[in-house]
Amino acid sequence: MIPLVQEIQKDLENVKDPSRVEQMEAYMKNHFSFIGVMSGPRKIVYQQLKPRLQQLNPAQTWELIEECWANPYREVQYIGIDHLLASYKKIALETDGPQFTFILTNQTWWDTLDLLASHVVGHFARKFPAAFSELAKDWEASENFWLHRTLLIHQLKYKQQTDLHLLQYYIRTFKSNKEFFIQKAIGWSLREVSKWNPEWVKKVVSEENLLGLARREAMKYVPQD
Asked: Which of 52, 67, 154, 215 has CB atoms 3.0–4.6 Å from 210's, for a disulfide?
């Protein structure tokens, strides 16, 4: 599998724009190294690789993801995510919890976690609710706030099928954490619900005494009295 990841890196290097590196690294607060490949050229690289990647079985797919994660360049990690987003509905297994915990707590920043949480983890939670419930207990007990953010936003794509009771439970559980990414996630999750149930959002904001960033984000689309 390592030669395949090395090939991914080489293909990305063939379309790099070195003048982009400094800007891309600064945008990610210098947490990661970049080759200098914007999303458009990266998507083309992925599409060229996709027929081969689709031949991987679930275990091989996760091996690919973990080796992409071990690569020093963020764009290689993005290719791993591109493939997981494209393939996960076909390869999802009830035993995927440890793999999720790994990719959500390593090389972690909002750019990767938010896609994984709302698309991949969200699908896992709907397909395997019992397995996700057990996994969520471990994440809730963890001190890692990225796992808490995942719990808050994994229902973002559910729309009217959102479990409102569960969402409010997580908001109540994590609202005392003033970490920016937690407060933002609380507001973001409520903002999505407000598009179809603004009265419920107003009730939760009041009941949970949400303030600051969480409140502003939550109430962004809610008609004011």
From this structure: 215
